[in-house]
Amino acid sequence: MKLSPLLALGIFAARGFAAESEIGHAKQQFFENEIRPLLAKRCYECHGDKKQKSGLRLDSAARFAKGGDSGAIVVAGNLEKSLFIQAVRRTDPDLAMPPDDPLPPAEVALFEKWVAMGAPWPASAEPTAGVAVDAHGFTAEQRAYWTFQPLANPQPPVVAATAAKWVRGDIDRFVAAKHTELKLTPAPEAGREEFARRLYFDLHGLPPSAAQLHAFVADARPDAPERLVDELLASPRYGERWAQHWLDLVRYADSDGYRADFLRPASWRYRDWVVRSLNADKPYDRFVREQLAGDEIAPDDPEVLIGTSYLRNAIYEYNQRDVRGQSTLITDDITANAGEVFLGLSFQCARCHDHKFDPILQKDYFALRAFFEGVLWRSDLKLATPLEGVSHAAKQAAWETATTSIRAEIELLVGPARESAVRKAHEKFTDDLQAILDKPFASRTPHERVLAVLCERQLEYEIERYEPQKALKTPETKARYATLLSELKQFDALKPAPLPEAFVATDAARTAPPTLMKGRRGGDREVAPAFLTLIAPEPPVITPLENSTGRRAALAAWITQPDNPLATRTIVNRVWQYHFGRGIAGTPNDLGKLGDKPTHPELLDWLARRFVAQGYRRHAQRSRQARRQAHAPRTARLARAALRRAGLELQATPPRNPPLRHLPPDRARVGLRDRRARRSRKSFPLAFLAASPRCRAGARRHARRLGRTRPRRRRCAGRRQPLRAPHPLHHQAPQ
């Protein structure tokens, strides 16, 4: 097992080329997402399996490293000495590549970045002559990979007598068995003070007060730890802390992103919905279904509909006139995120070709995307029940009737200038988009409806920023406008309060736009929605609804099936990661071959089966047995040191997935606080947590959220640390 990486390292080191064992997960992803598709698009036609001009072939790591008739073409880390960079820069006319058309500067910059970082190229498992594949092109090795296997049903192992004295539950039994196998001795158990602090940081993200800490230390009852767990889980602070983990995964933000970065005034309702769901211990399968298809499950229930805000978290640029391109980017973003968050796989690596490492076909990517084709961002819906909607409409109609003449005169004054601004924005779109906008809603195809909504958002922006007082030119018209506004204000008692804005999404129609997969040699192929071919090759059963395709409900039902090994392992691994700083598999968003294998696969499957059996609940039951199993095993009290010594590999072997021999940085800071707290006997100030540059940036963003300036978009993927200032969740949200 260790020879292959070493041989690869020896081969590539001789040519200054980075081998897989030397590169990190982020670099591998950069290569797969940016460089390999670019090579396929620009280079394979002349330097692939069909042609090798100048003796150069660029479709594998070994061939790239070998170079062509001129020798090696890359010196890792050195742009000036790399012939490959000279060619794409076209600094030498004899080497200029491609020969006819120069690459766009953005593509040249990607190649430069790749070579500067050492030209990382993961060692792809290239097909070998004689290897049997099935009808879908999968090898037996791919089918046997641990991620795609059904959940095993392991039983807690019998532990050695030396470990029996500290084992308190089944989780401890799995850890103790690995200790025995590797001849490791568990670390000393954490004291009550340290245990309490870790529990507070784990569940609330904040340290206990001195009074809380002293009360727990002084509590002599044998079930004091379980009581503390119950107390922390019952607190609203639990949902506020753990919601941060989920919001990071689904790329929640308070603003659109890109340069304009406009505020999303209603996005906070989704944030609060996640908090409420966690505090209510909403079953995970329901939690997933409401986010993927709340509008198809219970369209008249605002508390369910708001979950579809998940589909609105994609980054957005209001002034992007290339609406077709932006629509594609949004759907791709939703597809990639759903694959990572719910299934733990990097589907985006199969967008341009079959996945080079995992058994994910290019067709699988587009089949997953087809479930989200036709998702329509809605700005016309309100978070109200049908009864509340009828009541509000009646009151609104009464106000409109009473103010008809006043509003008509106001429209005569300010309407023409506003319509002129909207018309100018309308004319900035291409002719085909203008034609779509000019169609009635009922005459548009589903895809045209999606495009029209993105266009109309830009037209609505012109209306929102229109200032009537600036448009009125004479003192008389300005005075008359002010008088009319004063008269209109007298009817405020009749006007109902606005219903809560719904930052949600639905389908555009009962039928979806076609999902087209582009082939390498041209031509588009329509792909129907389907699940991952390797584990569910049969077509899904999809029942269209009156105003929706029913596709997302079918996808959510498959993801939350009890026997879906991808979804259950993914969420259980994430919960373990957030409790202990590292997942049982160390790359929670990628459980494929580019990711880390689990250090304790039996424990992962045992936890996944238990999670499903207990109704997909994170808290399990509030019984003493469940508390001891889920929150108070001795494993949790071993200062995490037992876990970092409980890996599958021996200490002398340098594994790709280290057995947690060192605390992760954020957990190390918690340990530092523990040691200092023992000396000071008091809680540390929260400002200590904002020590890193990332946290300082978070503090600046938080200050903006308190009203000083418009907040920037939050795209931070790391763990957010608590700040000295009150968390924005503790404030009344804007109405």
What does this structure look like?
The chain is mainly α. Helix content is 48%, strand content 2%. It has helices spanning 3-13, 25-42, 44-47, 61-66, 83-89, 105-116, 140-143, 161-164, 170-182, 192-204, 210-218, 224-234, 236-249, 268-279, 284-297, 302-305, 323-343, 362-372, 386-402, 404-427, 431-438, 446-464, 468-471, 475-489, 551-559, 565-580, 601-613, 624-630, 641-644, 665-680, 693-705, and strands at residues 375-378, 504-507, 516-518, 524-526. The strands form 2 sheets. Strands 1-2 form a two-stranded antiparallel ribbon. Strands 3-4 form a two-stranded antiparallel sheet. The radius of gyration is 29 Å and the shape is globular. The model is unreliable at 1-22, 125-129, 620-632, 637-663 and 672-735 (pLDDT under 50).
Mean pLDDT: 80
Relative strand content? under 5%
Ranges where pLDDT stays below 50 over 5 or more residues in a row are: 1-22, 125-129, 620-632, 637-663, 672-735
* Ends distance: 60 Å
Tell me how many strands there are: 4
Sequence of strands across the biggest β-sheet: 1-2
The coarse overall form would be: globular
Class derived from helix and strand content: mainly alpha
Question: What is the percent of helical residues?
Answer: 40-55%
Provide a compact summary of the structure.
The chain is mostly helical and 735 residues long.
